[in-house]
Amino acid sequence: MLTKTQLIKLLGEHQQPTYRAAQILDWIYQKRVQSWEEMSNLPPALRQALAAEYPLRPLTHTLTKGSADTTRKFLLQLPDERYIETVLIPASPALYGEKSDRHTLCVSSQVGCAYGCKFCASGLDGFTRNLKASEIISQIILAEELSGEKVNNLVFMGMGEPLANFTNLTQALEIITSDWGLHIGARRITVSTSGLVPQIKKLALLPQQIRLAISLHGPDDETREKIMPVNQKYPVAELFEALRIWNANKKQKITLEYILIDGINATPQHAEILAKRARSINAKVNLIPYNTVEGLPWVRPSDDHCKRFRNILTKHQVSATLRLEKGHDIDAACGQLRLKKEKENRS
Predict the structure, then answer these.
(1) Chain centroid to CA 40: how far?
(2) Which residues lie closer than 8 Å to 198 by C-beta, 6 or more apart?
(3) Are 261 and 295 in contact (CB under 8 A)?
(4) CATH class (in words) of the domain with range 57-346
(5) Could you read off the pLDDT of 284-295 as tens digits, one per residue?
(6) Does 1-56 carry CATH code 1.10.150.530?
(7) What is the pTM of this model?
(8) Which of 84, 149, 266, 300 lies at a 20 to 30 A Cα distance from 168?
(9) Are 338 and 84 in contact (CB under 8 A)?
(10) Where are the alpha helices (DSSP H) in the chain?
(11) Are the CB atoms for 110 and 131 separated by under 8 Å?
């Protein structure tokens, strides 16, 4: 899928007037047609040429786990027969009320992941490739069609490192936020990164007021390197310098994502250091008890242990939430469902 500017340029190469761009975008994002042939006001030759180069439905639905009133995970197949996952998360009644229409989609940006975060299933089978912008956008369109719900919040926290796919990510963000595209407000979009410092600085300069989440998981270099190999290239001090640049260009608070792993990063001393780090950039902290992944050795702390950790942060006036995450029973940790399917196909 192309941006409006790219589409106008392409139409020029086909000797077509620029107004065709608005027609095509209306068919794709408003009428949600599933084939170029349905675009009845386009010349047949143009429809045929575009269909050969730009498939409207590059993803195929394979499996859904979960139900309409819970978190649902969709397993989607790509044209090269690899798999990705996207997860639809309904609003929590405790936070948003029983009748909230808030639906958050957790979007993937790569097939697999090269960054090897020690708690994550996404990279267990290695990195295959970046997703195209069309494959990112199609996750949103398919999730809405499969669920019958309007997606109004996005988090790039699925498979892959979004900022390692920077060009396709930013193209997708333009389509997602534009009034000619999916028209989802930038403030309702969160991009999560393991801490790619140069790309954080570049993302800070984009006009869209998107939100940023950092997979921190360790408040100091010694702890973080046990969990996040990327810390060897971009240590904590460099990361937080980039986050200060972000703060200078964006209005929304940064969120520090922190998975609590028993015996690794969940002591009171870790909480004290984390509180200091968070306060230095006026960040929020999202605490997540470890979600068990088959094949990984980490252990989830008790709920009481997690609450004590959170209370240390709040004692230091840090905004901290403890997320008893949804999706425990549907292999919702990033990459688990995809790994199972690809192992089945290889056996």
Answers:
(1) 35
(2) none
(3) no
(4) alpha beta
(5) 999 999 987 777
(6) yes
(7) 0.89
(8) 149
(9) yes
(10) 4-13, 19-25, 44-53, 93-96, 133-147, 166-177, 197-204, 221-227, 236-249, 268-280, 303-315, 336-346
(11) yes
